[in-house]
């Protein structure tokens, strides 16, 4: 069997060196260097094998909890913590700096706000409520991440003091908190929602989302599926240039940069 053959070879090399060529010192160093390089590569790619080695060495994978099970939110966080960004992410980590690999888990949480949050205060409150719920559900994580999209009205006019109806935009507030309670917040870019979709959401008492109204207006295809994803109207409204996941990643990157500065400089959060 292959495993027995490997074991036999190992025993022979340990038991006796008689008749065998002894490697020179330079060859030993080269072999050690090659092994170190391989270990570093495994650490960088966050592979399962590297994670197992880390656990055995007392260095568990970095544990990140996302306060949602929505695929787009979890995917955006996974991209934030994915190699090759991982080594840079670990540098200011302090207690978790020895972690190897990343484990991202999404947990279902309640926002505690309307189905369609409206304005900065309600949207941010939804994100913070989710963050607190995730922290309670999964204590002991290295990072907690919460994301909440909201609807925002901006009064735009061509002249100072001019009238006109407000224009409605969708954007997200995100928050990242580390194990020591330091946190950073940021918001995404905004995508203008069609006036009819925003009006329908408002008329429902914000029990329906503007994104859902965009999908409803677009209708269904021949297979009965929505032509527009109600969770990602951003892709449709930007002609595919900026899907929601990319917008969330942009906000997460800003928040992470701010948190990294706090961690590395020990500034108060």
UniProtKB/TrEMBL annotation:
The highest taxon in the source lineage is Eukaryota
SUPFAM superfamilies reported in the protein's UniProt record: ITPase-like
Q: Where is this region: Disordered?
A: 1-47
Q: Name one GO molecular function term.
A: metal ion binding
Q: What is this protein called?
A: inosine/xanthosine triphosphatase
> Per the UniProt record, which EC number(s) apply here?
3.6.1.73
For activity, the cofactor(s) needed are: Mg(2+); Mn(2+)
- Please provide the record's keywords in A-Z order: Hydrolase, Magnesium, Manganese, Metal-binding, Nucleotide metabolism, Nucleotide-binding
Database matches in InterPro entries: ITPase-like_fam (IPR029001), NTPase/PRRC1 (IPR026533), YjjX_NTPase (IPR050299)
Q: Does the keyword Magnesium apply?
A: yes
Please list the residue ranges that the record marks as compositionally biased, kind Basic and acidic residues. 1-11
Q: Which residues form the Non-canonical purine NTP phosphatase/PRRC1 domain?
A: 67-201
Q: Which PANTHER family match?
A: NON-CANONICAL PURINE NTP PHOSPHATASE_PRRC1 DOMAIN-CONTAINING PROTEIN, PTHR34699
Catalysed reaction, written as an equation: XTP + H2O = XDP + phosphate + H(+); ITP + H2O = IDP + phosphate + H(+)
One GO biological process term is:
nucleotide metabolic process
Q: Which Pfam families match?
A: NTPase_I-T
């Amino acid at each position: 069997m292959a495993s027995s053959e490997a074991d036999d070879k190992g025993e022979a090399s340990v038991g006796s060196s008689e008749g065998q060529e002894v490697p020179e010192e330079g060859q030993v160093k080269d072999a050690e260097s090659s092994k170190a390089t391989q270990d570093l590569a495994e650490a960088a790619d966050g592979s399962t094998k590297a994670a197992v080695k880390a656990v055995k060495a007392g260095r568990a994978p970095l544990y990140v909890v996302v306060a949602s099970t929505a695929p787009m939110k979890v995917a955006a966080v996974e991209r934030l913590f994915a190699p090759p960004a991982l080594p840079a992410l670990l540098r200011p980590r302090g207690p978790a700096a020895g972690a190897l690999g990343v484990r991202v888990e999404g947990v279902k949480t309640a926002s505690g706000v309307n189905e369609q949050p409206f304005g900065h205060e309600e949207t941010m409150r939804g994100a913070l409520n989710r963050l607190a719920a995730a922290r309670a559900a999964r204590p002991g994580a290295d990072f907690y991440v919460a994301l909440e999209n909201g609807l925002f009205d901006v009064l735009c006019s061509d002249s100072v003091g001019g009238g006109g109806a407000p224009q409605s935009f969708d954007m997200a507030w995100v928050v990242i908190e580390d194990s020591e309670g330091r946190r950073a917040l940021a918001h995404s870019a905004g995508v203008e929602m069609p006036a009819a979709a925003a009006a329908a959401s408002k008329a429902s008492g914000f029990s329906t989302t503007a994104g859902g109204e965009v999908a409803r207006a677009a209708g269904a295809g021949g297979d009965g599926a929505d032509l527009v994803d109600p969770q990602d109207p951003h892709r449709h409204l930007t002609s595919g240039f900026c899907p929601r996941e990319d917008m969330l990643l942009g906000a997460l990157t800003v928040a992470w940069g701010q948190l990294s500065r706090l961690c590395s400089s020990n500034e108060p959060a």
